[in-house]
Design brief:
Blueprint lengths: L2 E2 L2 E3 L5 E3 L5 E3 L2 H12 L4 E3 H9 L7 H14 L10 E4 L3 E4 L3 E2 L7 E8 L4 H18 L5 E3 L11 E10 L2 E10 L2 E13 L3 H21 L14 H11 L6 H15 L4 H16 L12 H15 L8 H14 L4 H14 L3 H14 L3 H14 L5 H16 L3 H14 L19 H8 L3 H14 L7 H18 L8 H7 L1 H8 L4
Parallel strand pairs: 9-10, 9-11
Antiparallel strand pairs: 1-2, 1-8, 2-3, 3-4, 5-7, 6-7, 11-12, 12-13
Helix pairs in contact: 1-3, 2-3, 4-5, 5-6, 6-7, 7-8, 8-9, 8-10, 9-10, 10-11, 10-12, 11-12, 12-13, 13-14, 14-15, 14-18, 17-18
Length: about 525
């Protein structure tokens, strides 16, 4: 939660709490303006740049509208244009976000505290210092770890780590307890003994334990906890957990490592088995593709494993709607004739739980691929109303919405939606070419990515879009439409080469489709 000049803003800029306690809720255009300004804090953002950002909301976006919205923001924030604390005017050019961000100590990702017992002993102090260093390193950039010995700080930190210890003849005995910020209930705890001279290796061991405990808490849906209408589906939980503990590898590898360790301790745990299956699915849809899956039969073997795990552990989903939705998603994804059963599971999860947003996402995918595009788009929009702008879930819904629009051949709407996607989730630029169309102008990012493509990479992109998206549509026409934009642009880029993977070309006969549509290849 960023804080500027005594005003606490939600990360998504949906609302803010002023120092006087008043909560201000921003409109979509105001939120877009705030995100654009704060991401370029200290730099002049021209009126035309701001108008361009606002145009992605689908509302009026002229430069006069920019001035009107800036004045509204100033009123919300009790800012004075003559002595600005937040937004300064650069006359003749645009506006500058001048407020300095301040972070509260207790707004860290993890607070190490309270520290209880004989924590003043030299060995205990060394352990705390080393543990702080290791946690700061292992949790990664942007996830601050602070020490609060009293544990009395208030704020929005995500996790707390309490240490109670006693010193005894050159060693320290202790208990480390991990809690969440919104509940004093222990998420995990571990007994420890550290000998003199071994504080560093013990701190490394404990930091790894903390990381795994946090990952499991973030990734695993707790069937005993209440689920709100805006809670995210399992695929987003897993992705968020992997990103939170991201190493310089593909995200799914983080989940693989953590799940291997967890399943080693509980090999018969059905929830862990379902999570393992889901992580395997993520492996198969990750971009760029995992090289190991290019081996003959590798994809089929992976799908065999997913199918076996899901069907063998369905009992885990009975009292856990997020797992039931995940099972539906996996059975749908492997594309082995389970579509009706997947629909049944998704409908049950929606009817029996409060997991509205997660159910909207899964049900919409099933409707979309069954050809019910309008119903799918309605559900995606309902999910977007519950999701926070700027979150991974918001971006995920926009990506799915783009896919439905592509299937319907609504290319102008695809372009508008992708612009909103890139504004909400800049990471999505990495997959910008999948939404490209020869009938629409390209963004600078898309042009740069297209220029850097090799023929081999272009073929891999077509294969990936077919495998992860197009093949799931029951209608051949919808499959063609999903593939048409990317394949047409890539054929224009490499006119002398046949980039189409044989199975895609044979099934969809895309060359005839382009000829009928008047696209020159």
């Amino acid at each position: 939660m960023p804080s500027y000049e005594g005003v606490d803003f939600e990360t998504s800029m949906r609302s803010a709490r002023r120092a006087d306690g008043c909560v201000v809720v921003f409109t979509r255009q105001e939120r877009t303006l705030l995100l654009t300004l704060t991401r370029k804090a200290g730099a002049v953002v021209t009126r035309s740049e701001l108008a361009q950002s606002l145009s992605q909301t689908g509302r009026e976006a002229g430069e006069r509208n920019v001035d009107f919205l800036v004045n509204k923001l100033r009123r919300h924030l009790q800012d004075d244009a003559r002595e600005p604390r937040f937004v300064a005017t650069q006359y003749g050019e645009g506006y500058v976000w001048v407020a300095q961000e301040t972070r509260k100590t207790s707004d860290a990702f993890l607070v190490l505290g309270p520290l209880q017992g004989e924590v003043g002993a030299p060995l205990a102090q060394e352990l705390v210092a080393q543990l702080h260093r290791q946690l700061t390193s292992i949790l990664g950039r942007g996830r601050a770890v602070v020490i609060d010995a009293s544990g009395g700080g208030q704020g929005q930190h995500q996790y707390g780590l309490a240490l109670a210890c006693i010193a005894d003849e050159g060693r320290v005995h202790g208990v480390l307890t991990l809690t969440g910020h919104d509940s004093p209930r222990a998420l995990a705890c571990v007994r420890l003994v550290v000998e003199r001279g071994h504080a560093l290796p013990k701190a490394i061991e404990l930091a790894r334990w903390v990381r795994s405990a946090i990952w499991q808490n973030m990734a695993q849906p707790d069937h005993t906890a209440p689920i709100s209408a805006s809670d995210v589906p399992l695929e987003i939980r897993l992705s968020q957990a992997n990103r939170a503990l991201m190493a310089p590898v593909a995200h799914w590898r983080v989940g693989e490592r953590e799940l291997q360790a967890a399943r080693g301790h509980a090999p018969d745990d059905s929830t862990l088995a379902m999570l393992w299956a889901f992580n395997r699915m993520v492996q198969s849809i990750d971009w760029p593709p995992d090289a190991a899956l290019s081996a003959p039969g590798a994809v089929e073997a992976l799908q065999d494993e997913i199918e076996s795990l899901v069907l063998g552990h369905l009992q885990a989903t009975e009292d856990n709607p997020l797992l039931k939705l995940a099972a539906a998603k996996m059975l749908f994804f492997i594309n082995r004739g389970h579509h009706e059963f997947a629909e049944q599971l998704a409908e049950e999860a929606f009817a029996e739980s409060t997991a509205f947003a997660a159910a909207y996402a899964t049900r919409a995918q099933l409707y979309m691929c069954a050809g019910k595009l309008e119903e799918a788009l309605r559900l995606y929009d309902l999910g977007l109303e519950l999701a926070e702008f700027g979150t991974e879930f918001y971006a995920y819904l926009l990506i799915l919405k783009c896919t439905a629009l592509m299937a319907g051949g609504r290319r102008a709407e695809v372009q508008t939606t992708t612009l909103e996607l890139f504004q909400a989730w800049p990471h999505a630029q990495a997959i910008a070419l999948f939404f490209i169309s020869p009938l629409q102008s390209m963004t600078p990012e898309q042009e740069t990515m297209l220029a850097a493509l090799t023929p081999e990479r272009a073929t891999a992109m077509i294969q990936h879009l077919y495998y992860t998206s197009a093949r799931h549509f029951l209608s051949v026409e919808h499959r063609r439409q999903v593939l048409s934009g990317l394949t047409a642009v890539l054929h224009e880029q490499f006119p002398e080469l046949n980039l189409m993977p044989p199975e895609v070309l044979a099934e969809l006969n895309l060359l005839q489709f382009y000829s009928n549509a008047g696209v020159k290849l």
